[in-house]
Amino acid sequence: MRTTVGIVGAGPAGLLLARLLHTAGIDSVVLESRDRAYVEQRQRAGILEQGTVDVLRAAGAGARMDREGLRHDGIELRWAGRRHRVDLPALTGGRSVTVYAQTEVCKDLIALQLEEGGPLLFGAEALAVEDAGTARPRIPFRHQGRADVLECDYVVGCDGFWGVSRKAVPAALSRTFERTYPFGWLGVLADVAPSHDELVYARHDRGFALLSMRSPSVSRLYLQVPAGTDAESWGDDEIWAELERRFATDDDWTLERGPITQKSVTPMRSFVHEPMRHGRLFLAGDAAHIVPPTGAKGLNLAVGDVVTFARALVHRRETGSADLLDAYARTCLGRVWQAERFSHDMTALLHRAPDATPFEDRLQLARLERIASSRAAEADLAEAYTGFPLD
Ligand SMILES: Cc1cc2nc3c(=O)[nH]c(=O)nc-3n(C[C@H](O)[C@H](O)[C@H](O)COP(=O)(O)OP(=O)(O)OC[C@H]3O[C@@H](n4cnc5c(N)ncnc54)[C@H](O)[C@@H]3O)c2cc1C
User: Fold this and answer.
1) 201 and 210 Cβ atoms separated by less than 8 Å
2) CA of 186 to the centre of ligand 1 (A)
3) Is 137:277 a contact under the CB 8 Å cutoff?
């Protein structure tokens, strides 16, 4: 098999890249190790930055998002019984975010790709990326029990943190930057209307909690739990009681309960691999970087990477210049490190470390007071939350 761009992985990064290349008239093949149902049902991110929304619309993948996505103009911070709303458009010159689940983004992009785009092979596991340093990189893969090879002009590794692409960068050239956190998020989906119409980020002495939503009738809720917690060790009533404690306010706000339909624990990690390019291999999304989900940046960063790659390849075709391809890693890493900083800061602001001292607790509260009382501090948060521009 031969193509211009071999894409490893059909998460949001790989699927959007295939769509962007298709609309630019560049052929690609996507290899995805899992089946379609698995990819479409994997619960993950849910907050789309303004820039991501704009890109999906421009790629012709925004119709259902525009119908069903929920535009949010604010988030609420909660601590010590207090509530403070951050008005996103007022602080950012009109920018907002959209709540539309990653599962739905993937479903929309898969449907478009199968209808109009190049091959998207499910159950096709890439075994390695070979000859990345040459003009003819290759991806040996296994599809429905048969061994095959995809020969390409370029390979984009969109295969997530556990994929094979990153391993093709020689160890002597690789550098990783990493932090693991001593806690994770217990996330639940519940069949109940969200108790607040915007996201609520709560800092509590017992740990962080987040109220989010998937639709007007489905709530997505998270609790900070110790690293390594088994989701099944938490009973449903216990989860609701703990959520109520952490979201408690001084006014008459209440949390509506409903049937919990799914629960899982997400570990928290910050990770960056440099460089994001080796020869004709480009790493994109979680294959190159991970952020803790507190800043809602993971999916949006993946979008930024593949937009940067697609623009660079189109530029190369139109002008013959490889300048933008050569600048790929530098361009992406600028945004990546800003997102790493923001995601780390939001995590530190809102979570309670197991060894936190009373001094650190007071600092957290002082930071929250600062955001509530200083327009500059609040605008800094709002600007990062709604996303850094893609150009
Ligand atoms: C449990 C969880 C919860 C999250 N929650 C949030 C959140 O609330 N907010 C947020 O912003 N972000 C969240 N994230 C992060 C966000 O979902 C990711 O940043 C996003 O999925 C990155 O997209 P991606 O396409 O780069 O990688 P992925 O979505 O990981 O996609 C990679 C794809 O590659 C495939 N693959 C792997 N290896 C191979 C191979 N050898 N051959 C072929 N295919 C392969 C995988 O099956 C997968 O489909 C969460 C992540 C996880 C794991």
Assistant:
1) yes
2) 17
3) no
77/209 Cα distance (integer angstroms): 10
Query: Is the beta carbon of 14 within 6 A of some atom in ligand 1?
Result: yes
Number of folded domains in the chain?
1
Q: Dihedral of CA 296/302/303/304: which sign?
A: positive
Whether 370 is covered by a domain: the verdict is no
Q: What is the pTM of this model?
A: 0.95
Q: Ligand 1 in contact with 6 (CB < 6 A)?
A: no
Q: How far is the CA of 112 from the centre of ligand 1 (A)?
A: 20
Q: Is residue 48 part of a domain?
A: yes
* Total Cβ atoms within 10 A of residue 207: 22
CATH at 101: 3.50.50.60
3 state DSSP class of 171: helix
Catalytic site includes residue 201: yes
User: DSSP assignment of 277-326, as one string?
Assistant: EETTEEE-GGGTEE--GGG--HHHHHHHHHHHHHHHHHHHHHH---HHHH
**C-beta of residue 339 within 8 angstroms of C-beta of residue 385:** no
Show the domain range for 321.
2-72+97-179+268-352
293 is catalytic: yes
Angle, CA of 288, 291 and 296, to the nearest 5°: 120
CB 328 within 8 A of CB 377: no
Checking if the pLDDT of 389 tops 90, the result is no
pLDDT tens digits, one per residue of 187-244 = 999 999 999 999 999 999 999 999 999 889 999 999 999 999 999 999 999 999 999 9
Residue 118, domain member (yes or no): yes
For every residue of 10-63, DSSP letters joined together read: -SHHHHHHHHHHHHTT--EEEEESS-HHHHHH-----EEEHHHHHHHHHTT--H
Is any ligand 1 atom within 6 A of the Cβ of residue 33? Answer: yes
pLDDT score of 391 more than 80: no
Where would I find the H helices in the chain? 12-23, 36-41, 50-58, 63-68, 88-92, 102-116, 236-247, 298-319, 323-326, 328-350, 358-373, 375-386
CA angle, corner 170, sides to 167 and 174, nearest 5?
85
Residue 254 lies in a domain: no
